[in-house]
Design brief:
This protein starts with a helix and ends in a 16-residue tail after the last helix. It has one domain: Ribonuclease H-like superfamily/Ribonuclease H (Nucleotidyltransferase, domain 5, 2-Layer Sandwich), CATH 3.30.420. Helix content is 29%, strand content 17%. The chain is of the alpha+beta class and 199 residues long.
């Protein structure tokens, strides 16, 4: 965190006023550990630099068993035309469109969480949602704003022409960890630490 904040200051001349962290690889059993330990480490980094930015931290979970379906509006008799562009009018349920959000009924009663369907389902398959759990929100984002920015970040990965299942910075972290573990021996060259050309 300190290196990222210092790099931001070198590029922009000031430290950031707001920090958003998307954290992947945290299961439900590790949420409490993440909240206690890593948030304290972020705060320690802020204190060492003498700054106090507002922090928003979200846990991203993609290995889910949940699947969501929409009822066909035509077959349910609510409309003469279904809002889902993939609907042929012959199936009672179909996969939700990209960008669909589930933030009621099936979400946690204890946590501030929501599901996003980031991309269309392949033919003959069901859409796979991504779950976001907001563990800290100093900026007091509305749930709609957090959902919109999280979904929009899924479109910002340059190595794929459409949306991916997770925000782009989470995919960057995956790729870096994979490449470092597989190909790098020793410490990587400091000159490429802020470059994304190899991801």
């Amino acid at each position: 965190m300190m290196k990222a904040l210092q790099a931001f200051k070198v590029k922009r001349g000031v430290y950031p006023e707001n920090v958003i962290v998307y954290r992947d690889g945290v299961g439900d059993s590790q949420l409490e550990t993440f909240v206690r330990r890593e948030i304290l480490e972020y705060n320690a980094a802020f204190s060492k630099l003498g700054i106090s930015p507002k922090l928003t931290a979200l846990v991203v979970q993609k290995r889910l068993l949940n699947r969501f379906f929409e009822e066909c509006e035509v077959l349910a008799g609510r409309s003469d035309r279904c809002s889902n562009f993939q609907c042929r009018g012959n199936q009672k349920y179909h996969c939700p469109t990209a960008g669909s959000v589930v933030d009621t009924v099936v979400v946690s009663a204890k946590l501030f969480d929501f599901f996003i369907i980031p991309c269309e389902a392949p033919p003959g398959a069901s859409s796979r949602p991504t779950r976001y759990i907001v563990v800290r929100d100093d900026m007091n984002w509305s749930s709609d704003d957090l959902q919109i920015i999280s979904h929009q970040l899924c479109y910002m990965y340059p190595n794929w022409q459409g949306p991916i299942r997770v925000p782009s910075m989470v995919m960057y972290a995956h790729r870096m960890a994979y490449l470092f573990g597989k190909y790098v021996n020793g410490t990587p060259n400091a000159a490429i630490c802020d470059k994304l050309h190899y991801l």
